[in-house]
TrEMBL record:
Residues 5-143, 173-317 form the Sodium/calcium exchanger membrane region domain. The lineage of its organism: Bacteria, Pseudomonadati, Pseudomonadota, Gammaproteobacteria, Alteromonadales. InterPro entries: K/Na/Ca-exchanger, NaCa_Exmemb, NCX_ion-bd_dom_sf. It comes from the Bacteria. This is Calcium/sodium antiporter.
Length: 318
């Protein structure tokens, strides 16, 4: 048991680090070949923040732990909104002013409804996995297109440009990309195997281990990035990373088990967890969306989100 805990922690650290290095290298290479910072931020960086969840989901599905992969997708979205944004807003309220985010938030709600429609019958089918992954590619293309249409006064442009690596050679960028591509699946393999062993020892289901330990672990980079972002005044970027990550979780992370290991879902998925995920997404929409001006996610909003996360954990283990 102790060995598995050590392996899980090391796997999580290496997974997070290799995802960060992959995004660093890919962003630097994209900048060097002339891609705009906004496009890099909305595609490469956004996808990179979900890279740990995507790889973990693929490895879990290959190993036959389909409900662990599904739990990772839903649990990461729940953790991102309730825990990460909850704590971030308590540290410093987030001012939502980017029109780009006001386009992405309704998209997140629609994608959440599509995901729920696919899980509603208690089964994730292979063609549903194909549709989700197809939508993932479509959303990436749409984000790339939106990056070309965005208002030059949008605060997300400056915030994104500040985060893109500068002065990195193509050789160094390719080394970081290659290192990330090797270490991401390797660390995910050890993380999933150790998590399954821990779950069995503690008497937890595959679903719960995905919803809790793995989801929390893979969301830690988002927590660190969000807090650092708001402390630097990059509120829109911090929120944008969460929205982008949640969109990709529902499309790419949930699509993996549908494509690789389709089958019956744990009943708790369609009786409890998908509704919690949807409820928190709608709450985020309510706190963030304002058609006529700026909107702030206040400390009170953050406390509500954090209370929802704590209550959900009691529900899981009660």
């Amino acid at each position: 048991m102790l060995l598995n805990i050590v392996i899980f922690i090391i796997g999580l650290i290496v997974l997070s680090w290799s995802a960060d290095r992959f995004v660093y290298g890919a962003s630097a290479l994209a900048k060097n070949i002339g891609i705009s910072p906004m496009m890099i931020g909305l595609t490469i960086v956004a996808m990179g923040s979900s890279a740990p969840e995507i790889v973990v989901s693929a490895i879990a599905s290959i190993n036959g732990n389909m409900n662990t992969a599904v739990g990772n997708a839903l649990g990461s979205n729940i953790t991102n909104v309730a825990l990460v944004l909850g704590i971030t807003a308590l540290v410093k309220p987030l001012l939502v002013s980017s029109t780009t985010l006001k386009r992405e938030l309704p998209a997140l709600v629609v994608i959440s409804l599509i995901a729920i429609a696919f899980m509603f019958d208690g089964e994730l089918k292979s063609y549903e996995g194909v549709i989700l992954l197809g939508l993932f590619v479509f959303v990436l293309a749409m984000m790339a297109w939106l990056s070309l249409q965005v208002d030059k006064e949008d605060p997300l442009i400056a915030e994104t440009a500040d985060e893109i690596p500068k002065g990195v050679s193509n050789t160094a960028a390719l080394v970081w990309i290659g290192l990330g591509l090797v270490l991401l699946p390797l660390s995910a393999h050890f993380l999933v195997d150790s998590a399954v062993e821990i779950a069995r020892y503690m008497g937890l289901s595959d679903l719960v281990i995905g919803l809790t330990i793995i989801a929390f672990g893979t969301s830690l980079p988002e927590l660190a990035a969000s807090i650092a972002g708001v402390l630097k005044g990059e509120d829109d970027l911090a929120l944008g990373n969460i929205i982008g990550s949640n969109i990709f979780n529902l499309l790419a992370v949930l699509g993996m088990p549908g494509l690789i290991a389709p089958g019956l879902l744990d009943p708790d998925v369609y009786n409890r967890d998908m509704y919690v995920m949807l409820g928190l997404t709608l709450l985020l929409f309510l706190f963030s969306f304002d058609l006529i001006g700026k909107r702030k996610i206040s400390r009170t909003n953050g406390a509500i989100l954090l209370a929802c996360f704590v209550g959900y954990q009691f529900w899981l283990f009660g």
